[in-house]
Specification:
It contains 16 helices and 19 strands. With about 450 residues, it is α/β, with parallel strands linked by helices. The strands form 3 sheets. An 8-stranded mixed β-sheet has the order 13-14-15-12-16-17-18-19, covered by helices on one side. A 6-stranded parallel β-sheet has the order 8-7-6-9-10-11, with helices on both faces. A 5-stranded parallel β-sheet has the order 3-2-1-4-5, with helices on both faces. A hairpin with a 2-residue loop joins strand 16 and strand 17. The chain starts with a strand and ends in a 10-residue tail after the last helix. Bound molecules: cytidine-5'-triphosphate (CTP).
C-alpha cells in the first residue's frame, strides 16, 4: 500500500485545493492531509486566514480524497510525520518546488503543478477589497503602524491627518503617503481610520469617523468615560461599522495562549492576578506634563488591567487606586486593587518609578508567570506545588506586534467576526469606566479636554 501525505491551510477551499488533493490521492492508496492550525499560520506570518480550523478540515473531508486528516501545528512536524506515518510519497503544489527536497532521504517528494489563476489569497482579496486605512495623529505609535500594516495583506496605509500642516507634511513625506489637514478630504480618501492622537481627542475623532461611515481602530485608552464608550459602540452598531480598541497585548498570540492555559483548569481556580508594567519616561514628555490626561495610569493602565478583566471578569466588588505623584501632581506610579467575590487583582504601572514588569496568575493548583515584556507575550511558565514541575511555553511575537491587531481589525471588517472575543465591547466599556473612576479620584475632569 502506497501512503501519501500532503499539507496546506485550505482556506476558502477552492478548485486548486480540490485538484491538488485529487492528484495526491491518485499517487497512492492512502492519503493523509495535514491542515494547519491558526496558531501555526500566525507564527509563519499568514495572518488573515478566514475560515476556522474546523471549517477547513470539514472542507478537506468533503472533497472525499482524504483517508485521514491531521493537524499541522509547528515547523518541523512534516519531517516527524513522514517517519511516524510510514509515508512513501510527500507531495505539495509546485509553488513549493525545492522547499521539501530534504525529505527525499525518507520518502519520494513530488511537486504537483499548481492550478493557475486561483489561490486563497486571490479569493480573500476579491471578497474584500483592499482596506485603505488613514491615520489620525503623527506621534510615535503612528510611526510604528505603517511598517506593521505593510505585513498584513489586504490593507494599505493611504494617508495621515494632522490639523497641523507641518506635522502632517513631515510624516507623509517620511512614509511616502498622503498628508491631510482637511478632515473631510481625508475621509473621502479612506475606508477606515487608525486613531493614534492624544487620548482626549479620541472621542470626537471616533464619532466623526463613524459619522463618515468609516471603521475605527483606536489606540488605548479608547475613551475615558463609560458613557462615551457605550454611546460610540451603539453608534457603530447602528451603522454596521467596526469599532475596535487597540491594546496590542489583547491580540498577540502568546497572550491568548496564556489565557487559554490559565482558563483550562491546569492551575485550578484563579484567585489572584498581578500585572505590572513600568516604562521610565523623560520628564518633558506629554505623558508626564499633561495635567489632565497625562500620567502613568492613562498611559499604561489599559495593559495592566487587561489580564485582570480577562481572567477575573468585570464583576468586581470594589476598586481602589493608590498613586505616587510627581511635582506637578501627575501620577508617576499607580497601583489599582480589585476585589472580587473569590479573588483579587492588582494592576501596577509607572512612568517615573521602575519596577519588575511581571504578570502573575495564582490559582488553587498552581501559578503562571510571564516576565517583562509580558505585554508582548512570547514566553511564560506554569509552576505547581512541586518546584521541579515546571511547564514552559513559548510563542512567536513578531516585530512591534501591531500586525496582530491590524489583522484582526481587517477580519472583523470583512465580516468574519471570529476574533471579536480578543477585546470585547464589554471589556472596552469597563476599561473606560475604570479610567473615568481614576480621573474622578484624582480630581481631574474628563470632560475638560473635549474638543
Ligand atoms: N494549491 C494548488 N493550486 C492552487 C492553490 C493551491 O495546487 N491554485 C496547492 C498548494 O500548492 C498546496 C495546497 O494546494 O499544496 C494547499 O495550499 P494553500 O496554501 O492552502 O492554498 P493557497 O491558495 O496557495 O493559499 P494562500 O493563497 O493563502 O497561500
Amino acid at each position: 500500500m502506497t501512503r501519501v501525505i500532503t499539507y496546506g491551510t485550505f482556506d476558502l477551499f477552492h478548485e486548486g485545493h480540490y485538484r491538488l488533493l485529487k492528484r495526491a490521492k491518485e499517487l497512492g492508496d492512502y492519503l493523509i492531509v495535514g491542515v494547519t492550525t491558526e496558531a501555526y499560520d500566525q507564527a509563519r506570518g499568514k495572518l488573515n486566514v478566514v475560515d476556522s480550523l474546523m471549517t477547513r478540515i470539514e472542507n478537506v473531508r468533503k472533497s472525499g480524497f482524504a483517508d485521514e486528516i491531521i493537524i499541522e501545528e509547528s515547523v518541523g512536524q512534516k519531517f516527524n510525520d513522514v517517519k511516524k506515518f510510514h509515508i512513501d510519497i510527500f507531495t505539495v503544489g509546485s509553488d513549493w518546488t525545492g522547499c521539501f527536497d530534504y525529505l527525499n532521504d525518507y520518502c519520494k517528494v513530488v511537486y504537483l503543478e499548481r492550478t493557475k489563476n486561483i489561490s486563497s489569497t486571490m479569493l480573500r482579496e476579491k471578497n474584500s477589497h483592499i482596506q485603505r486605512i488613514g491615520i489620525i495623529g503623527t506621534g510615535r505609535i503612528a510611526q510604528r503602524f505603517i511598517p506593521e500594516a505593510k505585513l498584513v495583506s489586504g490593507v494599505t496605509t493611504q494617508g495621515v491627518y494632522n490639523p497641523r500642516e507641518e506635522s502632517a507634511k513631515r510624516f507623509a513625506h517620511k512614509w511616502e503617503i498622503n498628508g491631510y489637514t482637511d478632515l473631510e478630504e481625508f475621509y473621502r480618501a479612506i475606508d477606515s481610520v487608525y486613531i493614534a492622537s492624544p487620548h482626549e481627542t479620541h472621542y470626537n475623532y471616533i464619532k466623526s469617523a463613524l459619522e463618515h461611515g468609516k471603521h475605527v481602530l483606536c489606540e488605548k485608552p479608547m475613551v475615558l468615560q463609560k458613557a462615551q464608550a457605550e454611546e460610540l459602540f451603539g453608534y457603530a452598531k447602528e451603522r454596521g461599522l467596526i469599532l475596535f480598541e487597540g491594546i496590542k497585548t489583547a491580540y498577540c498570540p502568546g497572550f491568548n495562549r496564556l489565557l487559554g492555559v490559565a482558563c483550562s483548569g491546569t492551575i485550578g481556580s484563579i484567585r489572584n492576578v498581578e500585572a505590572c508594567f513600568t516604562k521610565l519616561e523623560k520628564p518633558d514628555r506629554r505623558e508626564l506634563t499633561d495635567r489632565i490626561y497625562g500620567g502613568s495610569f492613562t498611559e499604561l493602565g489599559s495593559y495592566v488591567i487587561l489580564p485582570i478583566l480577562k481572567l477575573l471578569g468585570d464583576d468586581f466588588e470594589n476598586i481602589h487606586f493608590e498613586s505616587i505623584k510627581g511635582d506637578n501632581e501627575l501620577d508617576i506610579f499607580t497601583k489599582v486593587s480589585f476585589k472580587y467575590p473569590t479573588g483579587i487583582g492588582t494592576a501596577t504601572c509607572g512612568l517615573g518609578v521602575k519596577s519588575e514588569g511581571r504578570l502573575l496568575i495564582a490559582g488553587t493548583k498552581g501559578y503562571i508567570v510571564a516576565d517583562a515584556p509580558w505585554w508582548k507575550t512570547s514566553y511564560f511558565e506554569v509552576h505547581y506545588e512541586n518546584p521541579d514541575e515546571v511547564e514552559k511555553y513559548s510563542e512567536r511575537f513578531l516585530g512591534d506586534g501591531l500586525r496582530y491587531e491590524i489583522s484582526d481589525f481587517l477580519t472583523m471588517i470583512n465580516g468574519v467576526g471570529k476574533n471579536g472575543f480578543k477585546m470585547t465591547r464589554g471589556e472596552s466599556v469597563t476599561l473606560a469606566g475604570i479610567m473615568e473612576e481614576f480621573m474622578s479620584t484624582e480630581g481631574r475632569d474628563p470632560y475638560g479636554g473635549l474638543i
